[in-house]
Task: structure prediction
Amino acid sequence: MRVVIAEDSTLLRQGIALLLTEAGLEVVAAVADGEALLRAVAEHRPDVVVTDVRMPPTFVDEGLRAALAIRAERPGTGVLVLSQYVEERYAVELVGSGGSGIGYLLKDRVDDVDDFVAALERIGAGETVLDPEVVKLLLARGGRRDPLAALSARELDVLKLMAEGASNTDIAEGLTISMSAVGKHINSIFTKLDLPKVDGGHRRVLAVLRYLGA
Result:
């Protein structure tokens, strides 16, 4: 798996590159700012990007803005934001950016190299990987209003099974309904929860987060 790293701290940037290389990943570029990140992605077309939120020159949101630009231009590229803090605006913006293969982890809570590499591989495979603190923040944000009030009883049943990890086939069997009916219920759930019209797997994650938050 090909990886581009964007981190302004030289020691941390080189340390991550070394760890990933030793784990068998191919680090094709390691850069220090958002503009260099965009150039590296255009040149190397990595499978996954690892970026901080705050980088030169202003140390505000250069990394996040670069990540969102990458998501818009190359939606197949996985993006892992590795930040010092849980920053609500950026976490919400990333999760709501659409597509699959996104992650938001906290630097101080990444204490196992194997887990970190596994998270990158999951993101590269199109999964969503979020630190528990990020999930807690998103749930608290979603809990400010009842996001499930518009759902029918059957849609709530479907969403509950989705939250338990059931596939569409499992849901159809569990509720004794057709696969077509399951699909219609899920699409209705996405619409009523006002989820972006992007990759279905990503919308499924967002729907489950709304359910858990409620």
Notes: The first strand starts at residue 2 and ends at 6. The chain has a mean pLDDT of 86.
